[in-house]
Amino acid sequence: MHAHAISFIQDLAVLMLTAGMVTILCHRFRQPVVLGYILAGFLIGPHMPLFELASLSKGGLINDEESIKTLAELGVIFLMFCLGLEFSLRKLFSVGATAFFAAFMEILLMVWLGWEVGQFFGWTRMDSIFLGAILAMSSTTIIVKALSDLKMKHERFAQQIFGVLIVEDILGIGIIALLSGIAVSGNVEPGEVFSTVGKLSLFMIVALVIGILLVPRLLSYVAKFESSEMLLITVLGLCFGFCLLVVKLQYSMVLGAFLIGAIMAESRQLMQIEKLIEPVRDMFSAIFFVAIGLMIDPATLLSQPWPIFVITLVVIFGKVISCSLGAFLAGNDGRTSLRVGMGLSQIGEFSFIIAALGMTLGVTSDFLYPIVVAVSAITTLTTPYQIRAADPISRTLTSWMPAPIARVFGLYGEWLRNISPQGDGVLIMAMIRKIILQIGVNFALVVAIFLASAWFAAPIAAYLNHWISQDNLQKGIIWSGALLVSLPFLIAAYRKLKALSMMLAEMGVKAEKAGRHTLRVRRVIAELIPLLSLGTMFFLLMGLSASILPTMELLVIIALCAALVAVLLRRWFIRVHTKIQVALLDTLEQGKEGH
Amino acid sequence: MHAHAISFIQDLAVLMLTAGMVTILCHRFRQPVVLGYILAGFLIGPHMPLFELASLSKGGLINDEESIKTLAELGVIFLMFCLGLEFSLRKLFSVGATAFFAAFMEILLMVWLGWEVGQFFGWTRMDSIFLGAILAMSSTTIIVKALSDLKMKHERFAQQIFGVLIVEDILGIGIIALLSGIAVSGNVEPGEVFSTVGKLSLFMIVALVIGILLVPRLLSYVAKFESSEMLLITVLGLCFGFCLLVVKLQYSMVLGAFLIGAIMAESRQLMQIEKLIEPVRDMFSAIFFVAIGLMIDPATLLSQPWPIFVITLVVIFGKVISCSLGAFLAGNDGRTSLRVGMGLSQIGEFSFIIAALGMTLGVTSDFLYPIVVAVSAITTLTTPYQIRAADPISRTLTSWMPAPIARVFGLYGEWLRNISPQGDGVLIMAMIRKIILQIGVNFALVVAIFLASAWFAAPIAAYLNHWISQDNLQKGIIWSGALLVSLPFLIAAYRKLKALSMMLAEMGVKAEKAGRHTLRVRRVIAELIPLLSLGTMFFLLMGLSASILPTMELLVIIALCAALVAVLLRRWFIRVHTKIQVALLDTLEQGKEGH
């Protein structure tokens, strides 16, 4: 064993032993393990005041912080991968309005508050933006720990909190992708944000569709060998490989880990994979949290008492207000809303990941990270008390509230119950939502096909050069190829659109208003909407594929040919699309069985 | 994520993806996973001929081989740790004579053959010694795989093979410690080998006794929290920490990993620990085996066809002959013996670890490693055929064998059955073995106490300087302190020795021979043996603790005081010792229940 390996093992030994001892102590005093790790990191870190006082081993007990940090990044990947495994598309579709409302309200308000606080303290634009993002996310680990300790995990408000956390996960992933873009370009243009979000959504939809078609099949194949070793190696290979792909596409590795986790969550082997990957995650995430502790410099903390105090207050009050309001607006009673808000008001591991992102990108200041850790530590300690305080506070509020305001609140709830669909309406709304989702996925795939053809246009053109030298013809071939591949999805989208517009026409054009024109108006609407949508789609595609767009005459010829092909091979295309759809839904169904 | 982390993730992605794909292929063609890993390493390694031909990415697909190698060393630690977990003292005590005979025969013959082969090819002394050690060990992984494939895992010869493998493990650990010593000092003195083996056995006994007293208790305490994360972190901390301690004592890390694994094997949480550590081991051991593949240079292999051919033949025939002979001498019939020998004739992961040791110590030549890998690959492929061929060969041998030789073999078996103890004899032999073991452990602990006092003499003397300045008195105090701590063990050893010598006297001095002196002779023997042994022990201790030995007069005073204390506090010392012994046996019993 050479010297480097020994010093590496020594670092790991010190790290794990300290982490083990401190977490046992933390557990005795009923604090979350994460706090223990961070404390352990601080104890063995270079800023430990005891070492400096004794002028013993100035650099702390860790010889090679660089290696530990590299392993810590693996920890982030495994943390996000496991978050993805626990996330699931089904869960996202089934969370109610509360989750969406509360998560949106929380993220919008907290990003804004974070930005304002940063500006108030005179921090840089980047520090302020990152602070906003850091404050936006709550901590699943800490909430689960607090709710289990209080034995409230199965109450209704707890279920609503878990719904909010799921929505937060996917929005947080979006925020991370956005922040990476902003950090590289250096400024925040609304147009750019819009295009980043668009591209990101597109990438996520395409990755999920292709991933769910391929990955669970591959995993099922490997699982047949009944070797947990091979399954683990395959899972790790796919995880790292996908992360790498995502990095090559200029997105964050964290996004890749989460997405591949979400894809694997749809496989039958989910339970087995979770069991295999958990020890690996625990090992590396311990390193990640200890590495956070290594960075805490008490001098920085002592020099920043006000930001820590103010941000802690902002986190607690901002989150309680925004989440409670969101929950209330979605139709919960005051008590439940307040409990949801109280439960969600802390920051945790997601915030560390965002802070670490800012640090590795080199765009945030050094003091941000320790402040975030301090605020997280404080809000972790307060979370259980907040949850317990929710009921007394809601009782006090109710008794103090002036009668008119209470009446307004009561009326709001009644109104909400009136406008929400009932009986058949619920079914129809669910159907419409499903159709819109299908149309969206089909359009996203078409857009992805055209973007991919534009991306690969140069090598394809070089290849075509052997036979066809004319630039316009080459473009025409590539474009019509992309169109041909897209046809199944376009036809499917058209059919769904038609079904949707018929439903809308039926519901929107009531016989008592349109009188004898009812049927005709309905038919016009039912025909018009799909055609208009397809037309818009074509213009969008022409914009996106500008680099491979042939001349207008050729385009018209291609479009006519495509229309002819579409009409002639209509049945075949539908069959192809149905097969793909069935395969996708099968996997999703199988995943459900696996749970 | 900074550039270094991305290149690291890329390496891991390439490694895991290739390993996953190749092992799936290997599994399809019913070859062990280990071969797949090595092949994967070769495919992505810097010596892959395809890359060199295409002059594409000259260094292979791995950017940072150094980091991969560091992780590979973690892989060795986890491999040996899991080997330790599967090893168990109980298993070692319960393996029969076959295992000991076959393992000793195999190791002696193969080390000698390896040395001779190395010398024959004109290799250096170190290369030859390492080759001997490499050839001595068989591969558990490959045998288990072959036997499961052949569905022979539960046959009698398979059980005997597993026994041999357990003995091999502990002897292999000894060989590794010896090799490290030889590599550092550079030569092989019989005296030094003896002292190394002595010190090693002492260290192992002390580590096992103290470890089994402390570690399972600690693990039970941590397991009470019912957090598999905390248990994992504690296990990892203990594993790395113990490895580090062992390295500081100038032993190999591999030894430490194995020992702490063997200690944890006695805890109630064994099953849980195995489940937690397995994915971690699988991940890192995959990296270890792939790293082996990275080092294979086909040019080296092609330039060494003769050594590979000769060593392969030596492995197959040498192991078949030595193991079969050992099994036969221990009393098995010819067919079983041949099957044992055929099953054990290959080399595998232990050989890689020894080869890696030679490489990291920088004492073996570069060509040794690839040759070992090639021989391992070939013998892996032949193992299943060998096992299958055992029966036909034994039939052929029986029919060809001249009658006189067959009769001699038959007589040997009969003689062996005659001399082996029967009825009460079996019980008495087991009892004697147990008492000898207990005496050995107690003496080892006493020796360890004196060695430790000699080790810590300087700081203790410095501390004593405040009160006592005379050198001789200081030494006297330290020496008598060591003696006081040793007293419980010395008294226990004395009592066991007395019991043993009474039994021996009873059995050795038959009434029909000694006549009317019988009782007196027996009593003399029963008193003499313990006193002589204790006397020898004292002289040994005086030699070992030469550096802290006071003058003779003082020593006599101390000895007299000690004798007085021993007689006066006899009961108390026995109680202390019994408590320790009960605690130790309790843990061993609890471990058994846990299985």
CATH class of the largest domain in chain A: Mainly Alpha
Following the backbone from N to C, one meets helices and strands of chain A in this order, namely HHHHHHHHHHHHHHHHHHHHHHHHHH
The major sheet of chain A is characterized as: none
The third-level CATH topology of the largest domain in chain A is: Na+/H+ antiporter like fold
The tally of structural domains of chain A comes to 3
- Which CATH architecture of the largest domain in chain A is right? Up-down Bundle
> Residue-averaged pLDDT of chain A, rounded?
84
> What is the number of helices of chain A?
26
Assembly form of the protein? homodimer
Task: Determine the fraction of residues in helical runs of chain A and give it as a percent range.
Answer: over 70%
**Ends apart, CA distance between termini of chain A:** 45 Å
Class by alpha and beta content of chain A: mainly alpha
Could you tell me which chain pair has the largest interface and how many residues each side has? A-B, 57 and 57 residues
